[in-house]
Each structure stands twice: as structure tokens, then as C-alpha cells.
Amino acid sequence: MDDEEARNRLLDAAEELFYRHGIQAVGMDRIRTASGVPLKRLYRLYPAKESLVSAYLERRDRRWTASLRASVAGAAEPVPAVFDWLARWFCEPGFRGCAFLNAYGELGVAAPEVVRVHKAELHALLAELVPAGAPPALADQLLILVEGATTVAALSPGPEPARRAREVAELLLRQ
User: Fold this and answer.
1) What is the pLDDT of residues 126-157, one digit of tens each?
2) Does 81 score more than 90 pLDDT?
């Protein structure tokens, strides 16, 4: 196994375990066991748990953001399309809310910078999607709707929180 394969196996294991059980509840030995990567190589690739957590969140950010962007690209109504994408995500098996908010909830200010970067990127994406001439606060309001729907769905998985948030977003767009 080369370093690339080892890195992918470690990140796959980290993502599954951290997202399901929480960052603090999962030790490096558990990651090693789940990935099948020897402990020496794990620590050579990720010298500290913090570096593995950052790498896991960075990879998740790239994949999550790319999926959302692809879903809304070319949509006749891009803002409602965001909430349609969320509704599908909320129904995925194993959905446990936002990995970035979960990480911040566990680690507080010690959470990796990628948590803040992810939220800033989401805000920027929403700002790109609002219609020309919309009030500047609309992107802020949409971010609150996305985050609120995601938090509610983490407690009660299913599409309904996204559908309700979409209704509110459509009201804001009509104003």
C-alpha cells in the first residue's frame, strides 16, 4: 500500500467514525484498526489527531460543496434548489447533521479553521445565488435557514425541515 492509498483509507475510516461517533470519542488506534493502516504510517501521514481531523473536514468540505454547487448549477430557481438538495441529503442513511457544526460543538474554539472556512464558503455560495437587487441581508437569512434546517434534521432526519426552510426562503425571495 502506497501513501496515497493509506491516506484515503485513513480518511475514509476517520470520516465514518468521526461523523458517526464524534471526534473526541474516537481514538487514533480505532482509526488504525478500521483503516488497516499500520500505526507507524498513520502517525507519519498525520502526526497528530488534529491533523487527521482537519484533513477529514477539508475533504468533506470539498465533496459537500461540490455536490451542492453541481445540484444548483443551471437550476431555474437556484435558491429553492439548495433546499431541495438539503432535503435529499437529510434522507441519506447515516445522516447526523453538519459535520462542521458537530466538530465545533465538540471542540469549540479549538475546532480546525476549515469549520469557519466552510461556513464562509456556504455564505458566499448563497450570496451568489440570490437575485440581483436583493437586499444584502438575504444571504445571511438564507444561511440561517440552511443551518437551522440542518440542525433540526439532525434531531429528526427526513426532508421536512428542508421543505419548511424552502417555504420561508421563497417568502423572502418574493419580498
Assistant:
1) 999 999 889 989 999 999 999 999 999 999 99
2) yes
Task: Report whether 129 contacts 78 (CB < 8 A).
Answer: yes
Name all domains of the chain by residue range, CATH numbers in brackets: 1-47 (1.10.10), 54-174 (1.10.357.10)
Q: What is the pLDDT of residues 95-116, one digit of tens each?
A: 999 999 999 999 999 999 999 9
